[in-house]
Amino acid sequence: MSLSLQGKTYVVMGVANKRSIAWGIARSLHNAGAKLIFTYAGERLEKSVKDLASSLEGEESLVLPCDVTNDEDIEKCFAAIKEEVGVIHGLAHCIAFANKEELVGDYMNTTREGFLLSQNISSYSLTAVCKVAKDLMTEGGSIISMTYLGGERVVANYNVMGVAKASLEASVKYLANDLGKHGIRVNAISAGPIRTLSAKGVSDFNSILKEIEERAPLRRNTTQEEVGDTAVFLASDMSRGITGENIHVDSGYHILG
Ligand code: NDP
Ligand code: N5H
């Protein structure tokens, strides 16, 4: 058993730019020897994802569109992956969305439409993707999704996204139970706050980061690299006994009352 991912292929979903957690995961998987395939949502991201993918040394990665709200898109994307590589050994799902107006103030004001939108993109998409990816994971493997502490407890302003993450975390357990018999493990990484495009516009983000620096057991903030290296562990056989788990990569902040 080793941490090497040589000879393994992983799909990384959700790179928007170089700050994306998905990009941190991609770099770590690449450094461990994995072959990568990238998916992106909007056309506007095609160039930036292609440029990033081609910056990985010695790697010529496939880059494909996949809007996870669209079943046909998911099917087409994984059919293209099957055609190109045949077998995959896992994927990293790093996708979430909620309406900006609903990430502030009282949770109670969430609209039905906003609630369903965030559940659709941030939670159901993992289930939809697992169903299709399973057929390509004939050698077993590891599926990883990203979550945040606000899915377990109330965190100011996380609101509708907290409810979506609670649903995502429950899905991880049910999916782990379904897929275990096929040798496929499903786990989540609960990351501490990281400044990414999604976090842009969060008005008090600096004070959130400052509180972690002052109070978290490790007295520092989480980096994309720390999340990426945990993803390598979860992707590799070194974590072969772990499934349905939520690993906190947050400087230990979640243990505080
Ligand atoms: P990014 O903004 O870099 O990534 C979010 C990604 O979600 C984008 O690539 C975006 O693509 C994608 N996305 C949104 N809608 C869709 C869709 N319909 N189909 C496919 N992709 C879509 O932010 P992060 O790296 O921060 O977020 C990655 C994950 O990490 C999320 O699940 C987030 O909740 C989680 N997380 C983030 C933390 C943080 O502090 N940053 C902390 C803990 C968890 P596009 O722009 O094309 O729509
Ligand atoms: C407690 C907090 C701070 C408040 C809540 C922030 C929630 C962020 C998550 C979602 C995913 C952000 C989001 O959907 C933003 C969009 O409305 C607007 N942005 C975009 O459309 C950009 C262009 C694209 C790339 O973004 C997406 N997502 O598609 C939580 C923070 C301390 C931690 C955090 C930021 C958690 C998290 O889940 O991301």
What descriptors fit this protein?
binds ligand N5H; globular; alpha/beta; 257 residues; 7 helices; Rossmann fold; 7-stranded parallel beta sheet
Oligomer: single chain
Question: Separation of termini?
Answer: 37 Å
Can you say what the CATH homologous superfamily is? NAD(P)-binding Rossmann-like Domain
Can you write the helix and strand succession as a string? Answer: EHEHEHEHEHEHHE
The overall average pLDDT, rounded, is: 97
The amount of helix comes to 25-40%
Query: How many distinct beta strands?
Result: 7
Structural class: alpha/beta
Query: How many structural domains?
Result: 1
What ligands can be seen in this structure? NADPH dihydro-nicotinamide-adenine-dinucleotide phosphate, ligand N5H
Short synopsis of the structure:
This protein is α/β, with parallel strands linked by helices. It has helices at residues 21-31, 46-54, 71-85, 112-133, 159-179, 205-215, 224-235; strands at residues 9-13, 35-40, 62-65, 90-93, 141-147, 184-191, 246-249. It has a seven-stranded parallel β-sheet, sandwiched between helices.
Task: Write up this protein.
The protein is α/β, with parallel strands linked by helices. It has a single domain, classed as Rossmann fold. Helices cover 39% and strands 15% of the residues. Strands 3-2-1-4-5-6-7 form a 7-stranded parallel β-sheet, with helices on both faces. The mean pLDDT is 97. NADPH dihydro-nicotinamide-adenine-dinucleotide phosphate binds at residues 14-16, 20-22, 40-42, 45, 67-69, 94-97, 121, 146-148, 191, 193-194, 196-199.
